[in-house]
Design brief:
The chain is built from 9 helices and 10 strands. The protein has 314 residues and is α/β, with parallel strands linked by helices. It has one domain: Divalent-metal-dependent TIM barrel enzymes (TIM Barrel, Alpha-Beta Barrel), CATH 3.20.20. It has an 8-stranded parallel beta barrel with strand order 1-2-3-4-5-6-7-10, surrounded by 6 helices. A two-stranded antiparallel ribbon has the order 8-9. Helix 7 packs parallel to helix 8 and helix 8 (234-244) packs across helix 9. The radius of gyration is 19 Å and the shape is globular. The two termini are 31 Å apart. Residues 290-312 have low confidence and may be disordered.
Length: 314
């Protein structure tokens, strides 16, 4: 079994969505991680329902699967990035409403998951209050997801209140380990922010993974990089996903590379295919009985262009 690869629409912010979807499909990706935002699909726009129906038809025409992402920077507040959140002092109800709309849009699109995160706890607010806010808001979103049959995937985000996989496990525990609340794994975040090697994190999270974001990073630095510019063991991480039996989308997450989106998307797909070939070759070799001839060597992928570094975080 191999992985189904997608690309994030937030990496095509300078493209019309119809054009971005066509480029993503033409390159050979099998899906898209669609961020709800004003350039592509504003969930608060008067024509959001009609726009959603049109996008569903476009996705079907192109044969693209979809997950819904909700990390738009200034959708809810033109002055404050990502605000308000599920743990803000005020405005949490607006964030919940966005996520409820995301669930309904996800249902209309046939999305495999709707992904969201906690936000940054305001300075001076006790952790106990943060947990109360996060648990209450997430419970409201899960209730909506239950009505529409949608899977939610919570993403631990470096620098936010729920920053690690351990935090996500705690949130699930507080909510009673609901089956509908699963995990978004950004493999770059595993390098940046987790104590264990990325592949080990993937294996430990295993069947709870409902959404995967792909990028490179360095330890302690939340900067989304092209593959090869950071320290991710890409064949190892992809191999771990295969080992867990993950069947969802694994989508490239490079939100600050829109200035060269088609080129970056093409380079990323080439890097991913080469890493998958290496991961699968390792597994094939491991299945060869002692003394048997090794499997035939695969063709080598042509060297990649030097990766472009541009920006950090989201």
């Amino acid at each position: 079994m191999s992985l189904r690869l997608g690309y994030g629409s937030n990496g095509f912010g300078d493209h019309r969505l119809d054009d971005a979807l066509a480029v993503i499909a033409d390159l050979g990706y099998e899906g898209v991680a669609l961020t709800l935002d004003h350039p592509h699909l504003d969930p608060f726009a008067p024509d959001a329902s009609a726009r959603t129906a049109a996008i569903a038809r476009r996705l079907a025409d192109l044969g693209l699967a979809v997950v819904v992402e909700t990390g738009a920077r200034y959708l809810l507040d033109p002055w404050r990035k990502h605000e308000p959140t599920l743990v803000s002092d005020t405005g949490r109800d607006l964030r919940v409403e966005l996520l409820r709309r995301a669930v309904r849009i996800g249902a209309e699109l046939g999305a495999e998951a709707v992904s969201f995160w906690s936000g940054i706890l305001p300075e001076g607010v006790p952790d106990a209050v943060g947990w109360d806010r996060l648990t209450a808001g997430t419970a409201e979103v899960l209730a909506e997801a239950g009505r529409y049959g949608v899977v939610c995937a919570f993403e631990p985000e470096p620098g936010m209140f729920a920053a690690t996989l351990t935090d996500v496990a705690e949130l699930r525990r507080r909510l009673g380990d609901p089956d509908r609340l699963r995990v978004t794994v950004d493999v770059g975040h595993l390098v940046c922010n987790e104590p264990l090697p990325a592949a080990d994190c993937v294996r430990r999270t295993g069947p709870l993974i409902a959404n995967v974001q792909l990028d490179d990073m360095r330890p302690g630095v939340h900067e989304h990089l092209e593959f090869g510019a950071g320290e991710i063991d890409l064949p190892g991480v992809l191999g771990a996903l295969i080992d867990t039996g993950y069947r969802g989308l694994a989508s490239v997450e490079l939100p600050r590379h829109g200035h060269a989106a088609p080129l970056v998307a093409a380079r990323s797909l080439a890097a991913l295919r080469a890493a998958l070939a290496r991961a699968e070759a390792v597994r094939a070799a491991a299945r060869v009985p002692a003394g048997a001839a090794p499997p035939p060597a695969r063709g080598r992928t042509a060297p990649q262009n030097p990766p472009t570094r541009n920006g950090g975080g989201r």
